[in-house]
Amino acid sequence: MGNYMNSKESVQKAISVTEPFAIFSDSHVKVIKFLTYITSLYSVAVRAVDLHLAEVEAINTGVKLPQENNTNRVFDIEEKVTFVEEIQKDLWNVIMLTEDESYIAELLLCRIVESFLAYLSDLLILIFKTKPEILRSTKTEQLEFILQFQTMEELIAALSEKKANELAYQSLTDISKYFEDKLGLPIFDTVEAKELTCTLSEIRNVIVHARGTITSIFKKRLPNYSGEIGGKIALNLSEVAEHTDFLARLALNLDNQASSKFNLIKQPIDSSLEEVEYIQRNVAAFPEVSERLFRPISGKE
Predict the structure, then answer these.
(1) Cα(257)–Cα(80) distance, rounded to whole angstroms?
(2) Contact at 8 Å (CB) between 139 and 166?
């Protein structure tokens, strides 16, 4: 598993974003925190196993390991039994975390993709409410629907949510087309970004609707995907960390463009971004911190 979060270029300290992005950012931070937690568990378990193996080697060779008070001790039979039990427990932790990595990665990927798609819907609603003339179309509404609202503001809000919900059931490609054609606001700045985001959306769909098993529909939409029909989606936490960072930057770029184009109301979220930076720095440093913590116990130089 290893170190999953790599500190990239510095995140801007103080920026203003729309309310939809602020909500998305909160979800983003929670995913990073969970990745940090899982990474830490794995690193601690692996180093605990290394420690116990060193102690077993010392028992077998008759080497006396120094205690914290710098006096030597000799291992008795009870200590030997305890070491074996601790090794079994820590090895089991490593095995379980390794075997569950793909499952945890699937859960987190679904979370980040759904959060991104929800951000797109929320952003659309905000744009519609700010510029209701965008909602004009040849489509008619039932009089019964219109008369249930007391004010024009309530009607616009309802129409905004209705249109956003209609788009939410379409493919990401169709949603992207609507943003570009109707709003003049491209979601993606490169072809590669569009391909990756659509791939992540399709992976999310097959995880949710087919328990992660590659279907013929999935393979038809993504013919270059390495897996075969009937096989399982292969994910690891390192990839999820990268995708989390990618979608956050994609959303932030879109948010900046939308805010400028439609003069959307914005709010500062400097504390959230600082927290992300703090977590990324600590995860990157965790192996070194862990090694320093265990070194005195294992008696290594």
Answers:
(1) 64
(2) no
**Beta-ladder partners of 268:** 16
| Cα 113 to Cα 18: distance, rounded to the nearest angstrom | 19
Q: Is the torsion defined by CA of 91, 92, 93, 98 positive or negative?
A: positive
Tally of CB atoms within 10 A around 103: 12
Residue 20's alpha-carbon distances to 14, 17, 173, 221, 294, in angstroms, are 17, 8, 21, 30, 43
Residue 161 and residue 164: Cα distance in Å, rounded? 5
Task: Give the structural domain span for 48.
Answer: 16-298
Give the long-range contacts of residues 100-106, CB within 8 A, separation 24 or more: 101/1, 101/236, 101/237, 102/232, 102/234, 102/235, 102/236, 104/38, 104/237, 105/235, 105/236, 105/237, 105/239, 105/240, 106/207, 106/212, 106/233, 106/235
SS3 134: helix
- Residue 5 forms part of a structural domain: no
Tokens for 286? 């965790």
CA-nearest of 135, 163, 185, 142 to 18 is: 185
Q: Burial code of 43-62, b = ≥16 C-beta within 10 A, e = fewer? A: bbbbbbbebbebbeebbeee
Domains identified in the chain, total number:
1
Domain presence at residue 182: yes
Q: Which residue has the higher pLDDT, 222 or 139?
A: 222
Return the structure tokens found at 89. 């427990």
| 124 lies in some domain | yes
**pLDDT band at residue 114 under the 50/70/90 scheme:** very high
Structure tokens that stand for 178 in this block? 């609507």
The residue that leads in pLDDT, 205 or 42, is 205
250 versus 289: the higher-pLDDT residue is 250
* Closest of 129, 28, 218, 135 to residue 226, by C-alpha: 218
Residue 20 lies in a domain: yes
Instruction: Tell me the whole-structure pTM to 2 decimals.
Output: 0.71
